[in-house]
């Protein structure tokens, strides 16, 4: 008996290899670089409109005469800068500003460091530290307007300060602290110190709490006294914070306007005239906008110098 031959196995024809999919369109390198600027565009527009454009306008005004008050201004070159730099009131404002910011910065540093070390001391209990923190931070919570009003009332000839001094027998009659050219600048400086030291205190307290305790333990093992611990452990560890805060305080204090304007208005007899009040009076009291623009540019250059040192110090850190 013969059997039929089995059907031969037919192998399926191999499918042709699939062609690789065409690569999608690649985004150009220019488009990739522009994507971050798309996200930043709202902020960039605000900076340009609110900062860059006004600065450019003020700089252009400083080289012209009769700006804003007249339709057709004329190019004046460096005449406005010459008028400003030779103005006795401007020179007095530079002197007063230098005294104001230097004394304020040094006092802010000393008071802030002293109070911060006291609040960081283990000798105080938790309740006492909380109470002192509230008391010491209070001046920082008031607005400049409130601070100016408080000190004007306290320093009035019939105010609390004169009453206390008279009761202690230190003065015979009320002293017009803000009306005397010999005392007005120091009184305004004191008010600025009082309102600004809490920021130094908080920053330095944070720096003190970040110093490792092992450093003090090692210093104690070596027989270091508290004073040497302060010189060789505390100050070196706080150096970056101190430098940063000092430069920032110089920048902020040099631009102080509201406190001075509301307490003395730059008087009496220009004894408290600062660069900020001098520029304001030129623009909005005498309507010398071109000269005021030149004064503002000078202030901008001085502030940029301080900002340069601050940025450089931050990069070194």
From TrEMBL:
Keyword Signal: no
Membrane-crossing residue ranges in chain numbering: 37-63, 98-119, 131-154, 184-206, 241-264, 289-311
Location of the protein in the cell: Cell membrane
Region (Disordered): 1-27
Domain of life from the UniProt record: Bacteria
Keywords: Cell membrane, Membrane, Transmembrane, Transmembrane helix, Transport
Start and end residues of each ABC transmembrane type-1 domain: 94-310
Composition bias type Pro residues, residue spans: 14-23
InterPro entries reported in the protein's UniProt record: MetI-like, MetI-like_sf
UniProt entry tagged with the keyword DNA repair: no
Name the UniProt record assigns to this protein: Sugar ABC transporter permease
High-level lineage: Bacteria, Bacillati, Actinomycetota, Actinomycetes, Micromonosporales
